[in-house]
Amino acid sequence: MRDIVRMLAQRLSLGLLTLFVVSLIIFLGVSLLPGDAAQAMLGQAATPETVAALRKEMGLDLPPHIRYIEWLGGILQGDFGTSIASKREISDLIGSRFANTLFLALYAACIAIPLALILGILAALYRNSLYDRTVNVVTLSSISTPEFFVAYILVLLVSVKAGWFPSLANVSIDTPFLERMYKTFLPAITLTLVVLAHMMRMTRAAIINLLASPYIEMARLKGMTRQRVITHHALPNAWAPIVNVIVINLAYLVVGVVVVEVVFVYPGLGQLLVDSVQRRDLPVVQACCLVFAATYVLLNLVADILSILTNPRLLHPK
Amino acid sequence: MNAPADKLNMSKSAVAWRELKRAPFSAKFGLVVIIGYILVAIFAPWLAPYGEAEIVGGQFELWSEQFLLGTDNLGRDMLTRIIYGARNTVGIALVTTVFAFLLGGICGILAAVLGGWIDQVMSRIVDVLMAIPVLIFAMLLLTIFGTAIVNMIIIIGVLDSTRVFRISRAVSLNVVVMDYIESARLRGEGIFWIAIREVLPNITAPLVAEFGLRFCFVFLTISALSFLGLGIQPPTADWGSMVRDTADLITFNDYTPLIPAAAIALLTVAVNFVVDWFLHKTSGLKDEH
Predict the structure, then answer these.
(1) Band of the pLDDT at B102, cuts 50, 70, 90?
(2) Are B184 and B198 in contact (CB under 8 A)?
(3) Of the candidates A77, A38, A78, which has an alpha carbon nearest to the alpha carbon of residue A59?
(4) Which residues of chain A lie closer than 8 angstroms to B265, CB-CB?
(5) Shortest Cα distance from A152 to chain B (angstroms)?
(6) CB atoms within 10 A of CB A115
(7) Number of Cβ pairs < 8 A linking chain A and chain B
(8) What's the whole-model pTM score?
(9) Taking the CB of the first residue and of the last residue of chain A, which one, N or C, has fewer CB atoms within 10 A?
(10) What distance, in Å, lies between the first and last C-alpha atoms of chain A?
């Protein structure tokens, strides 16, 4: 037990350190910029005096380390600063959009995880059968296609031709839950298809890997059915790698939504990030990147911890 | 004429040919597709009916004899742009991957051979860079440095070289502990001689496979950025931006936007098939991973 607590503390502090360095990179990257936010806001035509005045107002004349501490301190209190383009509080912009992004990612995960487990177990069960080989080719292909290709095929087939689901996911805060599910169905399915292949292949590989162990042979020699061997003997030991893959894919889901959000014009954080990059609205880009990176780091941390908890051997690295 | 040597040579190429013939259908398909793309990229100006950025008709014209795949939002011929896209999109992705490999591969092998604090410093830098998702990081950097093709090649190349660093360091570490490396060190060979003559030849197989996979990843990242309007900029013909430019057509039951997207998908799938087969061949793996 003490080992586990020590391990958790170790991982958590490592995660915090990573987050700190990431925030430092995001901040320093922007300070490398020739000119600064004040120049960008006022444009090329501004006189040096007005730029200097605005710089002072925004606190840009302070040395970088003080600005960094103020920036980070603000963020920890939920204050991300103001947008250059819209002059609004960034935390207002981000709040509901981040909730939307998380909703979409969770929605996709709820479909993808059970599906990936079932397909993966079946593929391991009927290894080298026609089903297995077909699934192998299909998943290999779907891993390697761009998200927008999958998205537009779905739009064409399900939305334009069949007319079952809308091609635009224009939800707002007061969209009721069921309508929201309906409107975001296509983006969720697109994301599902994007991550399904990876999760399924890893599930299959994890189980097949275990099938080579002696205790599985023992179970088989006892005369158990293939199905029982897999569900009762192989699967419980395969959870560690499977859980790991699921959480890593969740991290990918949250980050990979950017393209899907743009295709379906879904008001999420990814869409905001793309718009802000185009407008060169640096404070917003910084904030979005930080939120995305933090989510990614935290989920990877969770994957790390879960895989150690489910596999005690990892507590004692050689 | 040296008969046995000749026979040996014959059999060597024959072995390669036999392996190729024995390859699964997916690998053969992949090879044919890749060769097709290379030919299109090389002969683009001869194959294309019009000029790359030439405006030849009205906006969004339908598929016809004159414009086989119709025209885009500015009245440029879609087929022409698709053909030139093979050159631009694939070419830029290839240059980026080569850059990522040179940077990541050299640093990775050196980190393994040198060890010590150099290895530690490089590995920690890579850890931090890998903690931020590539697409998000690339967008931040593109905002800072501006969306030019050179910037994109450098940014994505550097970000992707971290992955190359990881794998080339890992496979080199397995080689560095071998006795022949020890004997080379004792002979007094220099670091670079060891890296290039002793380590590199023994890690080419995994690196070649990794090159294929990295290429796909870079290609998809660049396409995604272009699709978002942050990658390859007009008037250069590029598949990602073409999907974006013609995307509205999809709601009118028109397949046009799917064609450049399919061009991207087909190439990555083909490369993946070939890499999959290559991995099985070189590692003697019966099953993946």
Answers:
(1) very high
(2) yes
(3) A38
(4) 141, 144-146, 149
(5) 7
(6) 15
(7) 141
(8) 0.83
(9) C
(10) 19
